[in-house]
Design goal:
By secondary structure, the chain is mainly alpha-helical. Helix content is 75%, strand content 0%. The chain has 20 helices and no strands. The chain is globular and about 70 Å long.
């Protein structure tokens, strides 16, 4: 009997290790969700918090990679582009696509908020309104891109400034030419090392996801979600529609690519983003999936994806639209068409300077509310369910990163369509 049980356990373990990574993550997510709800309903929510450090450990490992991965991959990618005109095209296409999809996302959020009216019927009384403020100017945004101290930017993890410094560093390597070959070779070797380190940490994703989902569902439970279920439902519906119509439709119509394969190939980073609520923290997994699952060449992925993790906030922008209308309706404030336009502009420009970390959406929401004079007290209401909303919007942010990387790669002839159309290749092993 003992030998039989031992063989059965070995068979289960062997099957688990051979399972594709996205399937492991799916199983871990469902098990964590079920366990968390069970603990919450039985009055043992504190046990969910005891499991959370396992997830925190995984997230710390991912965050450990962000700065070296962003810097090394961008330097390597730019240094490999001997054609400076190509770098200019990449920059323009990437930024234009990110800003356009962000503007569309917040418009979808406003439309859904206008149709379903999540705040109607919820009387929050009166609140002190505030004087509208202007969105960040182009000059302020531009100045914020340049680090006054590169070492400080690295120490603080300011990804946008690191990207700018890496772009200039890689560009300088290209312009120096042959004399810079030792530096170029060093960064190419360093890139291989950091990618292998990334694959090691990615192998731990299912266990981190299980711990984080157990904590989220165990802490919040069903009681906290039901009162604001309409807001949650609208944000999740909006994210789904944006992913299918804008990303899937764009890939089909513009790049002539199979949208089903796009969703299959990007499932790992989307699910990790959903549980970790960090676009920047998901970046190593996003880069691996884009290259191996979607066939995006490293020269494109190493530039487009780090930039996207910083400035692409489609999910966050959509959430701004829904929540702004919810707060306006709950406080009985009528918004003009000019206010709608201000919300779209503020959220789009604000996304450039918003960090891709958990909770950043609330900061951005405060900026949006301030821009049209809505009560900031409304932020406290949204804060109660922000983690649940953060999961959906971060998943959409990362889905957008993957979609834009495919569109840009296709337009530049840097997409391996055979790899794109091949089933998953990301495995859970460390080999």
């Amino acid at each position: 009997m003992t030998n039989s049980n031992s063989s059965s356990n070995k068979g289960i373990l062997s099957g688990w290790l051979r399972m594709q990574l996205w399937k492991q993550i799916s199983v871990a997510l469902v098990l964590g969700l079920g366990l968390g709800i069970f603990l919450n309903q039985t009055g043992n929510a504190s046990l969910a918090s005891d499991i959370k450090p396992l997830g925190d450990l995984f997230i710390r490992g991912i965050k450990m990679l962000i700065v070296p991965l962003v810097f090394i991959s961008i330097v390597t990618g730019v240094a490999s582009l001997n054609n400076l005109a190509k770098l200019g095209r990449l920059s323009l296409k990437t930024i234009a696509l990110y800003l356009c999809t962000t503007a569309i996302a917040i418009s979808i959020g406003l439309v859904l908020g206008s149709i379903f009216k999540p705040g109607v019927g919820i009387d929050l009384g009166t609140a002190s309104t505030i004087e509208p403020t202007k969105a960040p100017t182009a000059v302020e945004t531009l100045l914020g891109l340049i680090p006054t101290n590169a070492v400080e930017a690295f120490a603080e993890g300011n990804v946008l400034q690191i990207i700018v410094f890496a772009l200039l560093f890689g560009l300088s390597i290209t312009m120096v030419g042959e004399k810079a070959k030792p530096v170029r070779d060093f960064f190419e070797s360093a890139a291989e090392v950091i990618y292998r380190m990334t694959s090691m940490i990615i192998a731990c994703t299912p266990y981190g996801v299980f711990a984080l989902m157990t904590w989220v569902s165990g802490t919040y439970g069903l009681d906290m979600l039901l009162p604001l279920a309409k807001v949650i439902g609208i944000v999740y519906l909006g994210c789904f529609l944006h992913a299918v119509i804008v990303f899937g439709g764009g890939l089909r119509l513009v790049a002539k690519l199979n949208p089903v394969r796009y969703f299959q190939g990007s499932i790992e980073p989307i699910m990790l983003a959903f549980t970790s609520t960090s676009s920047s923290g998901t970046l190593p997994v996003t880069m691996m999936a884009a290259e191996k699952n979607l066939g995006v060449k490293r020269g494109v992925s190493s530039f487009v994806l780090p930039l996207g993790a910083t400035i692409n906030m489609d999910g966050t922008a959509l959430y701004q639209g829904v929540c702004a209308l919810f707060i306006a309706q709950a406080y009985g404030v009528d918004l003009s068409m000019g206010a709608y336009a201000t919300i779209i502009l503020t959220a789009t420009l604000g996304s450039i300077g918003t960090a891709g970390v958990p909770g950043a959406g609330l900061i951005m929401l405060s900026l949006v509310l301030t821009s049209v004079g809505l009560p900031l007290e409304g932020v406290a209401i949204i804060a109660g369910i922000d983690r649940i909303l953060d999961m959906a919007r971060t998943g959409l942010n990362v889905a957008g990163d993957c979609a834009v990387s495919c569109l840009v790669a296709k337009s530049e002839g840097e997409l391996d369509e055979e790899a794109y159309n091949t089933p998953h290749v990301l495995k859970s092993s460390l080999t």
